[in-house]
Amino acid sequence: MMGRMGTEGAGFRLIAGRYRLEERIGRGGMGVVWRASDQVLGRQVAVKELLPDDALPDDDARRRRDRTFREARAVCQLRHPHIIVVHDVVEQDGRPYLVMELIDGGSLAERVARHGPVDAAEAARIGVALLSAVRTAHEAGVLHRDIKPANVLIESGTDRVVLTDFGIAQVEGATTLTETGSFVGSPEYTAPERMSGLRTGPESDLWSLGALLCTALSGESPFRRDSLGGILHAVVTDDIRPPAEAEPLLPVVLGLLERDPDRRLGAADAERMLRTYLETGRTPDAPGRSTTGAHGGGLIHRIGAGRTPKPPAPYSPTQLDLPYGTPQPPAPARTPGDAAPARSSRRAVLVAALLVAALAGAGVSAAALLLHRGGDGGGGTPGGTATTPATRTGTGGTAGSPTPTGTRPAPTPTPSADSHTAPSGYRTARDPAGFSLAVPEDFTRSPQGQRVFYLSPGQTFRLGVRVGGSQPGGPEAAMSRAAADGPSTNPGYHDGRVIRTTHDGHPAALWEFTWDGFSAAEGPRHTYDLCWEENGLLYDVWVSAPVGKVREAREYFDVAVGTFSVTGV
């Protein structure tokens, strides 16, 4: 077992004098999920430990904790067979814990990854359950905001569908659980109006359900792309192409993936249409709307479905969706034949604005929004190859599904590792090379010349650190030179990018890329690499992991950077 057990020993930490943590069964950016025993009622439960954000000032941290309790208690009131039951919310050592029913079974994401897409009837069954669940949540004023296959559990033996992880849910009329102005969610499943940061409503959860149905039917979201900009462009402006497998349920899928939230198919209508399909094998059109058929290799969203007929004026999201009051550029004079290019231009402006907003919200790493893209690639270090493992026999692992929680915030500065407690499942490594940082408990140290690696069992994950002298042009130039050498140091190097940023007030640069791994057995990998200059030295921290394990890699990276401290040799 990997959890950090404090003074009570592994597997015996007691929370609130009642819940004994026994085994860690999940971990994500916002928390750790434990299998636990309720000592009062004598039953097994799941306990989610919400990780603190040490970067927040004390007042903000207290307000965040208070909101967590308020919103968790609201979710506790939801009663529905397809919504995870939250039994209790408690506090231990200033940290909130959510006590939930324990579901014996994996997520929909795991099911699709292991057994392939489901057929239309099974997708309809799952859709009916989730639509019924979100209707109950919405009627209680609770928005989920992170509906995706990883947050849907399928109970073993019964095949019961359970919507879980309301960790970033929003309660109507309350400030959100996450900080105002920061983006939360999974971009491939996030509605365009939420991308803007200006509008979140029940309709946004329904868009996510439309994307989820496509993933269940075909194996991937229709908005999956190789970059954050590509995802934003796909969500906001590209023709929406549901997979061919979605054709039996096409009126529902197209209705849920209507970009105008006011014209989007409602939950009650969508549920009724899916029930009709299960009963008759045919999906009826949505009220007041029709759908068009195939075009080329995929089905194109031409006419959306809605709850009530409205005038057929074209929807331009720039008025509603531009973030933070960004002024709309004046429309150029045009003839009627120029209408389509003009709309395309406005949407291009929107995509650019959204990307800027996303990068700004992500702090030192724009990759925070790429929740389950990419994989590994041993972090590169300026002036040298950083991807080489201690040996080249490490396995890349199989492509795993994302954990059922949101990502960690982007790496944030910390003044000293000694002033922070390592998160659950981590230990503080005080390295003889003159630094300290938090690493997962089962990672082992492996020095390699000027580089120090902390490796997971089997080297599935490789966390590296290098300390060297300053270089011409600073971190950005050093990273750019390393990126230019990427094809020679990392076989199959692609999708590399270097982003200038700061870390703890120091000049910094983030390098992120994907590559093929050192062997076919290892498989494709992805890298997060942050380099910064401090006191005349260049510090470099990176994490390399299999493409299918990018969310875990991102957490390790965030924790390592966020707890890094110079200690001296």
UniProtKB/TrEMBL annotation:
It holds the Pfam family Pkinase. Its EC number is 2.7.11.1. Residues 384-393, 400-423 have a biased composition (Low complexity). InterPro entries: Kinase-like_dom_sf, Prot_kinase_dom, Protein_kinase_ATP_BS, Ser/Thr_kinase_AS. It is an enzyme of class 2 (transferase). ATP binds at K48. The keyword Ligase does not apply. Keywords: ATP-binding, Kinase, Membrane, Nucleotide-binding, Serine/threonine-protein kinase, Transferase, Transmembrane, Transmembrane helix. Residues 280-341, 377-432 are annotated as: Disordered. Residues 19-278 form the Protein kinase domain. PROSITE patterns: PROTEIN_KINASE_ATP, PROTEIN_KINASE_DOM, PROTEIN_KINASE_ST. The chain crosses the membrane at residues 348-371. GO terms for molecular function: protein serine/threonine kinase activity. This is non-specific serine/threonine protein kinase.
